[in-house]
């Protein structure tokens, strides 16, 4: 079938030669639409699926961590320990050294030093930093420090101190 299909395709291209400027314009418009969708609309509409906000959240936690004895980071949006280690450039040997000593859930670390990954306890210790996802209940006591939004304007994280 390759020979007949090649002949029919070549014949069609020769017959449509006079319409090439129209096809070129349509192709240019479609390619322009693709570029707009890819570079403007896609990042805005789907940034939450790409875990947008973790870098900003980790930067704030890292900047404030010396001020708090306990830090709780939500697991609502994924596995925060990986993002924490990546954005803080934590030496993998430090993480591996704790492998047999740390509580885990399906291989995910639930703590790392003063950081606790998961929902905060019901009775939050005083002077704690708490990072919550958009669907989690707010702590009864505490002060909102910051809210982090994705590129589409959806709430990604809320950071509190108690």
If you had to describe this structure to a student in words, what would you say it looks like?
By secondary structure, the chain is α/β, with parallel strands linked by helices. The chain folds into 2 domains: 2-46; 50-161, no CATH class. 41% of the residues lie in helices and 20% in strands. The chain has 5 helices and 8 strands, in the order H-H-H-E-H-H-E-E-E-E-E-E-E. It has helices spanning 2-15, 20-46, 54-64, 80-88, 92-97, and strands at 70-73, 104-105, 108-109, 111-112, 115-117, 128-132, 143-149, 155-161. Strands 4-5-1-6-8-7 form a 6-stranded mixed β-sheet, covered by helices on one side. A hairpin with a 2-residue loop joins strand 4 and strand 5.
The low-confidence parts are none
Strand segment tally: 8
- Quaternary assembly: single chain
Overall geometry: elongated
Strand order of the largest sheet: 4-5-1-6-8-7
What characterizes the major β-sheet?
6 strands, mixed
Q: Encode the helix/strand succession as letters.
A: HHHEHHEEEEEEE
């Amino acid at each position: 079938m390759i020979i007949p299909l090649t002949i029919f395709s070549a014949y069609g291209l020769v017959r449509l030669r006079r319409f090439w400027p129209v096809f070129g314009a349509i192709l240019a418009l479609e390619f322009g639409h693709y570029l707009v969708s890819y570079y403007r609309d896609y990042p805005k509409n789907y940034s939450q699926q790409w875990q947008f906000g973790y870098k900003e959240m980790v930067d704030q936690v890292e900047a404030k961590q010396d001020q708090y004895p306990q830090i709780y980071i939500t697991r609502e949006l994924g596995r925060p320990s990986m993002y924490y280690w990546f954005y803080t450039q934590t030496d993998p040997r430090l993480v591996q050294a704790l492998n047999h000593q740390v509580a885990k859930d399906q291989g995910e670390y639930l703590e790392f030093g003063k950081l606790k990954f998961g929902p905060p306890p019901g009775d939050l210790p005083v002077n704690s930093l708490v990072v919550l996802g958009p669907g989690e209940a707010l702590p009864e006591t505490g002060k909102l420090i910051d809210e982090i939004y994705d590129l589409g304007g959806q709430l990604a994280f809320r950071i509190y101190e108690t």
